[in-house]
């Protein structure tokens, strides 16, 4: 065949060619490591957990695969094994004032799947979905793939809470949902109870005004990663129409295993229909069930969390040093990121400059908030120590 | 809020409410088992592998999770860990006359994900995708979710090869792809080399006529499950524009772990763009990477296949008995299904009748080929032995 006309899906092709900025830097880091040695690359780009998976999880896995009495690798129900969903629901009930049951839980292949499925359950073409800058860049990809329009509320760059004036401007009759991410990637900030309360009041007001619910999609993979006793308000306690997207990627350092869940709060109006739509959306996106072995391992270890002490050490080390060197940065209570203001004002050129020293930072432009760099501290503490002189050299050279 | 208008995605809601016929029967079987005892329910509905996962896989898993030197649970590259892709590509090169390389492989969360991703990579709204009856019912769900129209070519009910006259009627200028599934679910039939050759000639002809490639999507989770030395032609050897969707669900009895791959043959026209579109489609459907632990376990055990001897014993036992009782059924060379003609002509009422005896069969209507029942024999041989008198009683009562 000569000169055939190739007419594949251009949007998919473009998304696969560009890839995410973060992934791009991560792959660059791997390439540099092969060239100059891993010890000479200071890669703060990716959120790949550095703390080991808790032993109890690996012990469960070992025991489960060696238990011949049980078909551990077989299909589970599409929404997840009943025992795993029960265990998750009980854990929610034990910790929060919400009456979660097994049939409110849909186990997923991680946070990205949770978000993609939830958006495909809720959205119709023409709907709008709002997120708060700075936001995880893939939100826009998932929202658009669900046929909806993505709107970013500009950042509150003073405290990295919510700029409510901007939010009220962004809400429109077609607004279907608002994505909340606390502790936040990339700022590390936890939304206060005061912020959540005010957010819920506003959403309640507009839900009534437009006579349809505006859902909160609470994306909370970093819930368990908070320091110095910080507390993260549980949004279903504050707002009925909440769908929680959870992931064990960070709390159990299982990022590559793709395990998480969607919790459709029983207080959601017509929650059974929403839950059915979640099941249907999972089905059409090609999710048959979440990885079975991981479902059972999670079920056996409710409430288990990796040792977050190393992240706290890393945060303190990095935050104290960078602010001493003259960098400016909001104080992060959770997650494993610092959101550092670019000393030059422009983050892309600053990150390019740092790259010459093999110091790999993510410019904030794709997070919808220009002029900052995301610094992931889910890395070896020793690597941070070795990187500190480079951070100093870079700011001193500007 | 009173009487709010709930306007979620109705298509998702409907797909989640109806669920697949097969899953429905499977859940019914579980419910009956609780009521009358597992030993009194003869469930031939689901393709949940009955043969154990090979020991080498469970040994790899055990070793990997206990290896502290290696972050086995961390993110891999989106397309899969390089070593895993290399291992898969080498296995393809070793077995077939195709020059597969690591960068032609995209590791997925199983066959359903492979299909959903491939269709979202290729299709634009208005495109057409063809499958051959009898076909796996979820094809239609995935095709429609990718915005394309699904067309079924009517079954060749004599040999369950391909009805080429119907195929030529089905092909249209908007035809983007044809899904081939051999060994076939639900018929168990393997397409012969003669059939594949003729199929490729026809697709070549229309690709030229319409001046764009018509892709073959080869869905082959049952490739390794063939008996008496039957051979399954490898379509990339016959047709350049082939994308293989593979899964380890059946070959390694890992159905619940969700692990498989997409192979974009390097002979595909503009294969790098197609591969990029696969990466992009995976990204927008929420797939970050396939389960990491399973990727490494697969990589360590290339060519490993579960013991298919039990399936052969089951096939022979069931095929011989059913045909002796007066049932009519095409002889299956592979997979683990018998496609049995309903003695009454109508399969839905026959399956309902059988259900009264707790004999659970899947009516063929949702496979696009009325009047048959799918009988999964990936079950305990002992359960088949106990079910045989029921099969006899049911046909004798008609």
Major β-sheet annotation of chain A? 7 strands, mixed
Mean pLDDT value of chain A: 95
The most extensive contact between chains is: A-B, 94 and 94 residues
Order of helices and strands of chain A: HHEHHEHEHEHEHEEEHHHEEHEEEH
Structural class of chain A: alpha/beta
Number of strands of chain A: 13
Separation, N- and C-terminal Cα atoms of chain A = 56 Å
The coarse overall form of chain A would be globular
Secondary structure tally, helices of chain A: 13
- Assembly status: homodimer
Fraction of residues in β-strands of chain A: 5-15%
- Please estimate the helix content of chain A: 40-55%
Output the radius of gyration of chain A: 21 Å
Low-pLDDT regions of chain A: none
Side-by-side strand order of the widest sheet of chain A: 2-8-7-6-5-3-4
Q: What is the topology?
A:
The structure is a homodimer of 398-residue chains.
Chain A: H1 10-18, H2 21-36, E1 42-43, H3 55-65, H4 82-95, E2 105-108, H5 110-122, E3 128-132, H6 138-145, E4 149-153, H7 164-170, E5 175-180, H8 193-210, E6 215-219, E7 242-247, E8 260-264, H9 271-284, H10 292-300, H11 309-325, E9 328-329, E10 337-341, H12 347-355, E11 359-360, E12 362-363, E13 372-376, H13 381-396
Parallel strand pairs in A: 1-11, 3-4, 3-5, 5-6, 6-7
Antiparallel strand pairs in A: 2-8, 7-8, 9-10, 10-13, 12-13
